[in-house]
């Protein structure tokens, strides 16, 4: 067996899901070029090579940074894209959230690129309140930037089922309760 393989007799539980981490988020785009420009210039993602099989199958781009990939796919049907008002920002909408170590710097960057956003601060939890910035990408997909490392995640049971990255996890997880 390889380093990551485990037998069910060693584990004692053959129901364990073999997931490791979030790999990528995929977004349909009205213009892959516009989305690449947004994600690289505004959020600092880097274009990476796509496997040749994808290049010949459909138009798109792969981006990576911060341990996560974003796969941009050229929409063939505009009806599959969000049809929301691009200026309407609701923190309760579906969104992807990125952890940020410099909220002021990111807010300055959004202003520099004239990205419309809303800012809010919630809670007064241990370690400080949570600051959030919400905005949309060129195809109206909601993005959140936050400093959620201030809030510990406390499992409500089954903490023995938690599988964490070997180095560290942000936000921190309280396992002693």
TrEMBL record:
Matching entries from Gene3D superfamilies are given as: 2,3-Dihydroxybiphenyl 1,2-Dioxygenase, domain 1
InterPro entries from the xrefs? Glyas_Bleomycin-R_OHBP_Dase, Glyas_Fos-R_dOase_dom, VOC_core
User: Per the database record, which ranges form the VOC domain?
Assistant: 21-148
What residue ranges are annotated as transmembrane?
A: none
Superkingdom of source:
Eukaryota
Q: What is this protein called?
A: VOC domain-containing protein
Q: What is the scientific name of the source organism?
A: Lithospermum erythrorhizon (Purple gromwell)
């Amino acid at each position: 067996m390889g380093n990551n393989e485990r037998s069910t007799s060693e584990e004692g539980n053959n129901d364990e899901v073999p997931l490791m981490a979030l790999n990528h988020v995929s977004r349909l785009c009205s213009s892959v070029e516009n989305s690449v420009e947004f994600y690289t210039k505004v959020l600092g993602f880097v274009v990476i090579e796509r496997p040749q099989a994808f290049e010949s199958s459909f138009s798109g781009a792969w981006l990576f940074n911060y341990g996560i990939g974003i796969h941009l796919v050229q929409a063939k049907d505009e009806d599959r894209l969000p049809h929301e008002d691009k200026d309407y920002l609701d923190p309760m909408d579906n969104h992807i959230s990125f952890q940020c170590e410099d909220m002021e710097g990111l807010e300055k960057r959004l202003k520099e690129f004239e990205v419309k956003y809303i800012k809010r601060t919630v809670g007064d939890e241990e370690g400080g309140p949570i600051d959030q910035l919400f905005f949309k990408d060129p195809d109206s997909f909601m993005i959140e930037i936050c400093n959620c490392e201030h809030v510990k995640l406390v499992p409500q049971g089954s903490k023995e089922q938690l599988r964490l990255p070997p180095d560290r996890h942000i936000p921190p997880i309280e396992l002693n309760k």
